[in-house]
Structure formats: structure tokens, C-alpha cells
Specification:
about 375 residues; Transferase(Phosphotransferase), domain 1; two-stranded antiparallel sheet; 15 helices; about 40% helix; about 15% strand
């Protein structure tokens, strides 16, 4: 008798998550074909799991959903190089949250673990409408995958997690990938909200160090949230962890001074990265690309921004100016603060609207063209 597709899928997940060896899964399939017992009974009869362990693996989708006391995890909503993010609900009260969990293999890495905890502690102190809020950081114990445990690993492992405000909606990068380049007014609106978050961080003595579309969430109601402060630090941190992570970030968005590994970064570095973000959102491609990160970093330091791409996209002169000034190689030429950037954009946009009779009836502010999460070109979402 052929095994049920759901059983085959579950066995594949068990192998993928390190709960079963491949040869054990093959034996399960052979037993299922013989029709002796259902899969869950086979797993117990062969001595691989106790009944309660099988129930746990079913409940957690073969271990894909960690079990954390006080929370009910529902699904994974994001994954990065250092962590996974899950939609979850607090068992007491039912509040929906996002749980950001450090990859288990990084827990022994003191630098990665300290950076993760520092991010949580920093987020707990911040209160701004354009920055995602953290509720708590904690450690839990989780069962080690069976194959690793059989190889001598401890039967349980530490899980470090941050409970965060759940922000429904895509990142600006996902919005860009699904809809193509954004209208200028939409991109400027997003950038202005991020600039307000950066000004707040500056007032707290914090440099974000990883501003990019993938770290900007777009929520219903045109709410913009800056996320991922894993690389954030105090300006000019002279040594220690901050020195070791001074070039951390995403190569395509690094400021020249960050690409050089300087340890005296300030908010002007974030403004450069925000300029690359504005360029990417409007043009639909990155200003500097290469075969690898090393080549991209070299171009960030050595090559000037080419105006041809902006002109080819028929970018308006004022937006062209904003990008050029935000992405100046010399930080002394850039906007010296997010406040200066915000003021310049708002003044120039208001001045342009005052010349346009049809659009001069409003308050003259910078607004998106409509619902940022509404239908895109051709009615696509």
C-alpha cells in the first residue's frame, strides 16, 4: 500500500530538521508500504520516539515551530542570516506578537549572541512611531534535534528570543519586488518616515548601520516601521564589539566610511544608506553592483554615482538632487542630520506643489499617491 502523501511529507520534514536519519525514514516508508501500522505508531514501535515526542513533532511541524513557554507560535514570517521571525500569540491575554529567535547554531557565538541581546535591550528603551517596539528578551530551552542528540549534543539547547510588536505587511523591498519601482511621492513618503526614525535614534546617540528597504516595514494605513537594530551602536565607539562590527551591514547600502571600516560612524552614514534606499525604490535597481560584496564595497568607496540611470528614469530634478546630496562620498557634503534632510524635502515639495494649481489645495506636505499596499500596476498587489 502506498504511503499517504501527508506521511511522506512529514517524514521528509523530520529528515530535514534532523529528527530522523535518512535510512530510518526509508525504513518507515517500507513499513508503511507493508501496511503494518500508521506512521506515528511505527515511529514509536521502532524505538525512535516516545508517544509524547511524536505528538510534539506533529504539533511543531517536525520541530520547525519552536515551543517557547508562554507563547503559541503560528507560522514563520521571516528568516535572515542570524535569526528567524515567527508570528505568535501570548497565551496570557492573546496579544499577537512577532518572536525573533536567534539561530541555535549562533548561540555559542559570543559576538552574535551579545549583538542579539544588545538589539533587544536597545529596542526596549525606544519609543517612536516609526521604530518597531520590543516587549522583552528572554531565553528558553528547546529539545535538540534527535540526530544531533544521538551524535553527542546535549538533549536540550538554549533559544534566545525577542518579543516584538507584530507589524503586518511587507518590507519596502518586498513591495518593490512585487510592484516594481515606486512613484516618487510614495518613495519620498517612506524615506521621510525612516528619516524621522533616524533623527530619533540620533537624539538617543544611536547609529543604525543597516538602513535598507529590507529593514523597512510597510503596514496598513501607510505606517512605516524601521526594524533590525542588530548592528546599531553609539557613534564613534572606539573598540570592543562595535569595532569588530564596524563593517557589518549590507554591502550595497554601506556608506564609504562604513565600507572602509571606520569606527567613527555617525548619522551621516545612515543618511547615505537612506539615499541608496531612495535610489533603489525609485529606479528599481541598485546604484552599485558587482560580482561579489568585495567589488560592491570597492565601488561604494571609489566610484561616483552615475546620473545616467536617474536621467534615464526621468527622475524629477529635485529627487535627483536629494539622492546626489544624500549619497555624497564626502560626509561633510551630505545632509548633516535627518532633520535637515526632512526640512529640505518638505520645503522643496511644498514649493513644487505651490506651482501646480491642481495639487496646491492641500496642506503641501509629502503624502503617498494612495494606499501603499493597494493595487500596483495592472491591479496587482
Amino acid at each position: 500500500m502506498a504511503p499517504l502523501p501527508a506521511d511522506v511529507e512529514f517524514l521528509a520534514a523530520l529528515v530535514h530538521r534532523g529528527q530522523l536519519a535518512r535510512e530510518e525514514a526509508e525504513r518507515c516508508l517500507a513499513l508503511l508500504r507493508s501496511g503494518t501500522s500508521p506512521l506515528d505508531e511505527v515511529l514509536v514501535e521502532e524505538g525512535w520516539f516516545a508517544p509524547e515526542e511524536v505528538a510534539r513533532l506533529r504539533r511543531t511541524r517536525a520541530g520547525a515551530l519552536p515551543e517557547i513557554p508562554g507563547y503559541r507560535l503560528e507560522e514563520r514570517i521571516g528568516v535572515g542570516g542570524t535569526s528567524e521571525v515567527f508570528r505568535a500569540k501570548e497565551k496570557a491575554g492573546g496579544r499577537a506578537v512577532a518572536l525573533k529567535i536567534l539561530h541555535p547554531h549562533l548561540v555559542p557565538d559570543a559576538v552574535a549572541k551579545d549583538r542579539f541581546v544588545r538589539e533587544a535591550r536597545l529596542l526596549e528603551t525606544l519609543q517612536h512611531e516609526n521604530i518597531v517596539k520590543a516587549f522583552r528578551v528572554a531565553r528558553a530551552r528547546a529539545a535538540t534535534p534527535r540526530v544531533a542528540a544521538l551524535a553527542g549534543a546535549p538533549p536540550t539547547q538554549d533559544l534566545y528570543f525577542i518579543s516584538l510588536e507584530l507589524v503586518p505587511g511587507p518590507t519596502a523591498l518586498e513591495l518593490l519586488e512585487s510592484r516594481g519601482p515606486l512613484p516618487e511621492e510614495d518613495a519620498l513618503f517612506i524615506v521621510l518616515q525612516v528619516a524621522r526614525a533616524l533623527e530619533y535614534l540620533r537624539s538617543k546617540g544611536v547609529v543604525h548601520r543597516d538602513v535598507k528597504p529590507g529593514n523597512v516595514l510597510v503596514a496598513p494605513g501607510n505606517r512605516i516601521k524601521l526594524i533590525d537594530l542588530g548592528f546599531a551602536s553609539r557613534p564613534g565607539a572606539p573598540s570592543g564589539l562595535d569595532r569588530r562590527t564596524s563593517t557589518s551591514g549590507t554591502a550595497s547600502y554601506l556608506s564609504p566610511e562604513q565600507a572602509r571600516g571606520e569606527d567613527t560612524l555617525d548619522v551621516r552614514s545612515d543618511i547615505y544608506s537612506l539615499g541608496v534606499t531612495l535610489y533603489h525604490l525609485i529606479v528599481g535597481s541598485l546604484p552599485f553592483t558587482g560580482a561579489d560584496d568585495e567589488e560592491v564595497v570597492r565601488k561604494q568607496v571609489q566610484e561616483s554615482l552615475r546620473s545616467s540611470a536617474l536621467k534615464g528614469r526621468r527622475i524629477s530634478p529635485h529627487v535627483h538632487y536629494f539622492i546626489e546630496k544624500m549619497m555624497a562620498k564626502e560626509k561633510e557634503i551630505r545632509y548633516q542630520s535627518p532633520t535637515a534632510l526632512i526640512a529640505d524635502i518638505e520645503v522643496q515639495i511644498a514649493g513644487r506643489k505651490s506651482l501646480d494649481f491642481e495639487t496646491s489645495k492641500g496642506d503641501g506636505g509629502v503624502h503617498p499617491s494612495g494606499d501603499l499596499l493597494g493595487p500596483g500596476p495592472g491591479g496587482k498587489r
